[in-house]
Design a protein that fits this description.
The chain is α/β, with parallel strands linked by helices. 27% of the residues lie in helices and 23% in strands. It contains 6 helices and 13 strands. Strands 1, 2, 5, 6, 7, 8, 9, 10, 11, 12 and 13 form an 11-stranded mixed β-sheet that branches. The protein has a two-stranded antiparallel ribbon with strand order 3-4.
Length: 290
């Protein structure tokens, strides 16, 4: 279904600042976001691609000055929701844990393994308790549209893989990399958790476009190097931009997404016991449940 068929839709794109330096993007305006969870990453920009409004959020900030552990994932997702975003595309560099996923390939994962330890992973850390299902954390409707866009670039595209998210900022030891392969992980990165989980808590349909840059360190004579990763990323920016344009031209109807209504039966706290201050904190996420 086209973007015009889902009027009012806004595409949110989380990735590097290079993503919004693309032909055809018009009416650009900077945005700032102060949320109940702190400040979002700087450099947020809203613009239009054709008839679709797109909000770009540079995950690491304009100067790439924030490490994965230092990112305010809650503020970033909250900010996107506050700007009216209805679809979220996460563009992320990853290492490959599989021979068949070569540097330069595109991957649309369906699952995540969380190996982070320093990041707040839920909006509901006080006053309100909510248990949201994460059995299938990626929106299948969004993932199908992202996969279609990835294939349209002509790149070798893999769909349905598992992404293991490590804390970083260091890369994996060889033993860790091989362990993750044994667990069934296919790609490895540092940013999609808790990002994907928070998007589900915010009832935002979310999918990742992962750009494979290296073979991590599981192969005997391979290890990740920043200069090599950045060289592959530079080559893949145009492909990522093409996927963004593809999505903007044909945003899927996500009314049946499992993200929609994810909080309906998740809140355990009796609403009449929640303070006015807490209700204000969660108003964007929970609305008036009185």
């Amino acid at each position: 279904m086209s973007a015009s068929a889902v009027g009012g839709s806004v595409l949110g794109v989380i990735g590097g600042s290079g993503l919004y330096q693309m032909p055809g993007l018009t009416a650009m305006e900077p945005l700032t976001a102060s949320t109940p969870f702190g400040e979002a990453s700087d450099g947020i920009v809203r613009g239009r691609l054709g008839e679709t409004t797109v909000v770009f959020l540079p995950r690491h900030g304009r100067a790439h000055s924030r490490s994965p552990s230092a990112l305010n994932y809650r503020a970033n997702i909250y900010a996107l929701k506050s700007f009216g975003v209805t679809h979220v595309l996460s563009v992320s560099a990853v290492g490959s844990l599989r021979e068949e996923i070569a540097p330069g390939d595109l991957v649309v994962p369906h699952q995540f393994i969380d190996r982070t330890s320093l990041r707040p992973s839920t909006f509901f850390d006080r006053d309100v308790v909510a248990h949201v299902s994460m059995a299938d954390p990626v929106c299948p409707i969004m993932a199908a549209a992202v996969a279609e866009g990835a294939r349209s670039t002509g790149a070798n595209t893999h769909v349905g893989q598992t992404y293991v998210c490590i804390e970083g900022p260091r890369f994996s030891t060889r033993a860790e990399s091989r362990l993750f392969r044994q667990w069934g992980a296919d790609i490895i990165g540092m940013t999609n958790v808790p990002e994907a989980f928070l998007a589900r808590e915010a009832e935002l349909p979310y999918s990742t476009l992962a750009l494979a840059t290296d073979y991590d360190s599981w192969r005997e004579h391979d290890e990740a190097h920043v200069d090599e990763i950045m060289a592959v990323m530079a080559k893949n920016v145009s492909r990522a931009q093409a996927v963004v344009r593809h999505l903007a031209a044909a945003l899927p109807d996500v009314s049946a997404s499992p993200a929609r209504g994810a909080l309906k039966f998740a809140v355990m706290t009796k609403w009449d016991s929640v303070s006015a201050e807490a209700r204000a904190r969660y108003a964007l996420l929970l609305g008036d449940r009185g």
